Amino acid sequence: MSERVKVLVTGGEHFGGLAAARALARAGFETVVAATTESSYAAKSRAASARVLVPDPALGAEPFAEALAEASETFAADVVLPGTDVGLSALAAYRDRFPDTVAVGVCDPETVERATSKAALAALGSAAGIAVPATQTIARADLAGSKPIEITFPAVVKTLRSDVVDAGGTLVHAGAFRVRDAEQLEEIVEGLPGERWVVQPYLEGDLVAVGGVASDGALVAAVHQVAERIWPVDCGGSSYAMTIPPDPAREQRVRRFVAELGWTGIFQLQVLRRGDEEFLIDFNPRFYGTLGLALAAGVNLPRLWVQLLLGRTPQPLGTYKVGVRYRAQLNDTRAIAALAQSGSWREAARGLLPVRRTCHPVVAWNDPLPVLAGWKRVRRKVAAATEKSTRCSPRRPEVDKPSRKS
User: Fold this and answer.
1) Using CB atoms within 10 A as the burial measure, which of 182, 222, 367, 391 is most buried?
2) Does any domain span residue 127?
């Protein structure tokens, strides 16, 4: 493919966006990074041939889309790729702001709406033949009512979307929370944005994921992985993961899922594995956190996405490498500390040992600046997390031992 193909990429403030920028540069594309902050990982990466600051889509979808449309003309971009849920929704809503010559990596607004809805996940999974934990939607009014809500505890509570508007009108990212009883459920949702939430029973098991690319509902590529450690330990994402051989049955279910959704673009589907059972717990329709693992295993998913958007036949993939590992240093340090704190000293000690063929989301010997640029940002995040943990400590569940995401 011609080196003159220009890709304008967003979401570089996160691990997945940095991995995408590096993958695109490795594929020979001229990669322009649109960043919402100067401390963006990807903006400091040598993978970026140019950089431009744009408004944060969390503060306004239309200004973000208009700034990207202007940047696409300024840099003569051939392709624009959204890197976050909120960026994806913004570009889907304002796709008409871009010149017809620019291929924008978004589905129609209705498909994006379903793809980013936690409430729609259960129906999509069931239609695809994937087991889903019993799911119910509760409202603030339900908690204030005199009739008790029938919920199996411990449970997991999530906002209807990963990015929701808080009381101050700002779009914020909200994760999943483990709750041990009805009293803690009320305490948790009191601090969550929105008026409605999804509740599921808490399940323990292995966090398994399939990352890939789809085109018009057809699966084009898939990479299977399993998390050996997650952070936070009760309801978190992969801090240490490894590629595993593809499971034909699982991949077939993923194939049916993206077909049911009609998805086009990059994605990651997560399931919780308990013995022979697997339960659908999340779908990420964007650059996901462990995207760098797929690249290290030999599958350049962003390149495939660009090729499809340009109407070109993707290059043959072959097989990916099994046993390649991924470690998110800060989060994995916390996960290992939690193991030690729970008494799992041997497992914690094993986690400290270096392992060959391990990639990292930020650290790269041939691209060091994202580490330096992100240090201040990491310190700020750690300080904020510490302050939040202290402020909300009564709401945090008691954890006897690290468990998997549910």
Assistant:
1) 222
2) no
* Residue 68 near residue 60, CB atoms below 8 Å: no
When pLDDT is averaged across residues 190-200 and rounded to a whole number, the result is 86
pLDDT, tens digit, 9 for 90 and up, residues 251-297:
999 999 999 999 999 999 999 999 999 999 999 999 999 999 999 99
Question: What letter does residue 312 receive in the DSSP assignment?
Answer: -
376 and 270 within one domain = yes
Q: Is the pLDDT of residue 101 over 80?
A: yes
Domain range for 178 is 134-202
Number of independent structural domains in the chain: 3
The whole-angstrom distance between residue 142's C-alpha and the CA centroid of its chain comes to 30
> Residues 283, 319: one domain?
yes
Identify the pLDDT of residue 384: 59
Nearest to 7 by CA among 56, 44, 42: 42
16 and 72 co-located in one domain: yes
3-state secondary structure of 137: strand
Nearest to 19 by CA among 376, 311, 383, 305: 305
- Asked if 309 contacts 77 with a C-beta cutoff of 8 angstroms, the reply is no
For tokens 């034909």, name the residue.
248
Beta strand extents in 143-300 (DSSP E only):
155-159, 163-165, 171-173, 176-179, 196-201, 206-215, 218-231, 237-243, 265-274, 277-284
Mean pLDDT estimate for the chain: 89
Torsion of CA 369, 297, 232, 151, to 10 degrees: 140
More confident residue, 192 or 364: 364
192 and 303 both lie in a single domain:
no
Confidence of residue 317 (pLDDT cuts 50, 70, 90): confident
Would 126 be classed as within a structural domain? no
Given a contact cutoff of 8 angstroms between Cβ atoms, the answer to whether 28 and 34 are in contact is: no
Q: Tell me how far apart the alpha carbons of residues 87 and 269 are, in angstroms, rounded to a whole number.
A: 19
Q: Is residue 128 part of a domain?
A: no
The pLDDT tens digits for 38-67 are 889 999 999 999 999 999 998 899 999 999
DSSP 3: T
